[in-house]
Amino acid sequence: MLKQFADYVTFSLIGLKPGSHGGEALDFFIYDTIKIFLLLTTIIFVVAIIRSSFPPERTKRILSHNREYVGNVMAALLGIVTPFCSCSAVPLFIGFVESGVPLGVTFSFLVSSPMVNEVALIMLWGMFGWKIALIYIGTGLLVAIVSGIVIGRLKMEKYVQDYVWEMQVGQQEIEELTFRDKLVYARGYTRDLLKKIWPYVVIGVGLGAFIHGYVPQDFLAKWAGRDNPFAVPIAVALGVPLYSNAAGVIPIVSALTQKGMAIGTVLAFMMAVTALSLPEAIILSNVLKRRLLLTFFGIVATAIVFVGYLFNIIL
What is the pLDDT of residues 184-237, one digit of tens each? Predict the structure, then answer.
């Protein structure tokens, strides 16, 4: 039904020709924009109700009672339903350290939360189907768990800024919400989140539409296809300096896939964009010394490259 509506607007009302560059690009833009916003509005509301049961204080308490391995798994799973963004990196990191959460466990959370979330799941499911969505979520969790374990084993606590260990955040009371309160929270959270991410969605779909309509398939297949052994690290290197979230990058990912880019390369690019960014590095530099910051980015980037190569082989 949505596809028929997009076709009607593009080819009947506006009068563009089917198969033309402009027609295919606009048709892609209208269809994907409507579909993404419908999916986001519905499922973010549901996930927000679940998320309301995991305020930062409760998350800290859960993680503080778990050590290596179990703690890394718990942290990665909590990252799915716990709000986290670069702007909250400093207070959350300090709170975790002050509450006794091991450093490696904290990093599992830092990797999982921006990379593996409801927005990524919703949009991947809508564009690629449930198999690719679950593959991405599973590999994202694996990257978060393994990265946290490696950082924990390196014993790099001395590379956390000294003031973090000296700061006492203290415990706060956890307010229990009624179901009505959770519905009110979910409505406000959904509205606020859509206000924040709608430009990324529109820009992402617009870039995806341009790629879909105007970029020759042979071009991307040549430079980022299965036959190029350096495609995955190049995709990760390009993704790291970009600042976006799943809402902005997935429409681009969809167009790149349709143009022949290997799925492993696409997933690696998306992981790099969502889990590693220059703004995040700048903010985290306030609590991490340079060696730990570079180690964190290096380990996560290496894990993402490995995932990309693995899925290019098996898919």
Answer: 888 887 888 778 767 877 877 787 787 777 766 566 556 666 677 888 888 888
Answer for the pair 265, 294: CB distance below 8 angstroms, yes or no.
Answer: no
**Residue 288 DSSP SS3:** strand
Residues 6+ apart with CB under 8 A from 84: 92, 109, 110, 113, 114
How does pLDDT run across 49-63, given as a tens digit for each residue? 766 766 656 666 666
- Side-chain half-sphere of 3: how many Cα atoms within 13 Å? 1
Q: How many CB atoms lie within 10 A of CB 72?
A: 30
**DSSP states along 211-252:** HHHHS-HHHHHHHHSTT-TTHHHHHHHHHTT----HHHHHHH
Contact 280, 234 (CB under 8 A): no
Identify the burial level of 308 via C-beta atoms within 10 angstroms of its C-beta, where 0-12 means exposed, 13-18 middle and 19 or more buried: buried
- 56 close to 96: Cβ distance less than 8 angstroms: no
Q: Residue 263 forms beta bridges with which residues?
A: none
Domain ranges of the chain: 2-166+179-314
- 184 within 8 A of 228, measured Cβ to Cβ: no
Q: How many CA atoms lie within 13 A of 48 on its CB side?
A: 21
pLDDT of residue 50: 67
Per-residue DSSP letter, 14 = S
Judge whether 36 and 126 are in contact, CB under 8 Å.
yes
Mean of pLDDT values over 27-45 = 79
Tell me the CA distances in angstroms from 105 to 36, 39, 133, 155, one per residue in order. Answer: 33, 32, 25, 12
- DSSP category for residue 159: G
